[in-house]
Amino acid sequence: MTKEQPNVALADKNVSNVAYLKAKLKDEYGKQNSNPRLRMVLVIFFVFLIVIIFRLVLLMLWQHNFYLALSSGSREFYSQLYPKRGSILFQDSRTKEEFPLALNKDYFLLYADTREIKDNQTAEQVVQKLTEIFNYNDEKKVTVLAQLNKRTDPYEPLEKKIAESVYEKIKSLNLPGVNFVRLAYRYYPEGELGAPIIGFLGKDKDDNNIGSYGVEGYWQNELAGKGGFMTGSKTAVGSLAHLANWSFNKAEDGADILLTIDRTLEFKACNTLKKAQEEYGAVSASLIMLEPSTGAIRAMCSFPSFDPNDYGQVTSANVYNNNTIFAPYEPGSVFKPLVMAVAINEGVVKPETTFVDTGSREGFCQTPIKNAMGRSYGLQNMSGVLENSINTGMVFVVEKLGKNKLIDYIKNFGFGTKEGIELDTEVSGKIDTLNQKKGDKIDCYAATASFGQGITATPLQLVTAFGAIANGGQLMKPYIIDEMRFADGHIEKTKPQEVREVITNRSSLLTRSLMVNVIDKGHSTLAAVKGYYVGGKTGTAQIPGPGGYTEETIHTFVGLAPIDNPKFVLLVKFEKPQRLWADGTAAPIFGEIAKFALQYYQIPPSR
């Protein structure tokens, strides 16, 4: 074979070797590709790659200015702009004068630059001066002294939320190493008054301000506003370089909220209720005053309560709950006027309709339905049924009405659903027991619902339902926000909203007249207000427990005045008071507050 002739055999061999290697690699790749673990690794790798690409796009496009400023060192800056949180206001519902309930107030944070405290003697002198102002005990003195003796810490916080008067006093002492930072805090000038309504401003897990409970929680976004930022460049000497890569996104302050709550009525009602709770030894107490013509809430109280300026000092987080919207319960006999109004509206009974009470009704529940104290009243008309609060009489009424009509009207009055009040933590009562058996025949649940057992409702639901009786039959949506005032000058005014007509005006008038007789002739004489026609109804409801009803009770009184054109509906409730009947607890408190409210609104006596 000459030099010019190719080695054909060798070339063929090389070609075959290459083909062999390709085939081998393909075979190996096929084996690896069939490995499920390898496929899983590849999937994870591609997902990770996609996440990185998405993050890069986010940083480069949407957050470009922010990270550009951070990466530019001392020549450029980024400044976050914080919005001002909106205020919450009470009002005088007569004059429309306004009063701050929640606002922002500057306080001071006291800290020490321990590098300026040269020795232990100086530290002890500083501690002694601070003790004279803050009344430190021995343990606190030791703690503060240890903080001051760190010597190398430029920022050692000592006291938070110091009032300006205290700040001025400490500042005048010229204590070495003691410095201040001015900070804005949420301030509630009325203290405990209105606390269950407004809630409080707390902290989230990232130490950011966040509203909790009440108005602060429900309207967190509107009150907080929106933050902004500013980026730009600095000159070599640190001053701002004008027109150099400026970017500005203005902060938007939070909205101010004007409540429908009348400050004077709130003060009178809540103070009266709190004193009564203590006197009666009740576990809790709550109250709502509603304007029936509009649905506006003029007073709302819930005890035990708290001071939102120091909300952490409570024995239980349950204290934060507003029981007027959070605690459904079996209302008992205060439910009777609502059922009576329904029956009158359907024409199945009239005020003069009579029945004979034997004191007991059988055939509905496993045990006979009886009246309180086992009493029997003989021949009675419908007015007498309410005056004497006769359970068996109400069973007679729902027999005439029918179960389906009863359920329809209970729903139309708003029971079983939330009212939609603009406050955090509202819950709805339950009426689903009424649907356990089909058909129109009165069963045990329908029979007991006629006098407020076996179903639950919140005080808000009850006072709203009675508002329909007070105003001529219209169920109004209750509301507590009068105005929302935004930073751009826009104002959203709440307009009264009619939900539906539940009963006719005639049925409303007839039911109100029966409720006047309850106070004039029945068990609720202590709810009367001299010179006025006032209507109402007591309820002393046993609290259900395992195996049946317990001996503990909840006392309620719902009333309206003046009866011809009610200015307000007022509900008073006590949980587990150390007295037997609501006519000796809730009724007289209603009378005291109703008298004040009638005089406050300058409604002349008509009796």
From TrEMBL:
Protein name according to UniProt: Peptidoglycan glycosyltransferase
Domain of life, per lineage: Bacteria
GO molecular function: penicillin binding; transferase activity
TM region positions: 41-62
GO biological process terms on file: cell wall organization
Sorted UniProt keywords: Membrane, Transferase, Transmembrane, Transmembrane helix
Upper classification of the organism: Bacteria, Candidatus Magasanikiibacteriota
InterPro entries reported in the protein's UniProt record: Beta-lactam/transpept (IPR050515), Beta-lactam/transpept-like (IPR012338), PBP_dimer (IPR005311), PBP_dimer_sf (IPR036138), PCN-bd_Tpept (IPR001460)
Residue ranges constituting the Penicillin-binding protein dimerisation domain according to the UniProt record: 82-238
Domain Penicillin-binding protein transpeptidase: 286-594
Annotated Gene Ontology cellular component terms: plasma membrane
Gene3D superfamilies named among the record's database cross-references: 3.30.450.330, DD-peptidase/beta-lactamase superfamily (3.40.710.10), Penicillin-binding protein 2a (Domain 2) (3.90.1310.10)
Subcellular location: Membrane
Species the sequence originates in: Candidatus Magasanikbacteria bacterium GW2011_GWC2_37_14
Stored Pfam families: PBP_dimer, Transpeptidase
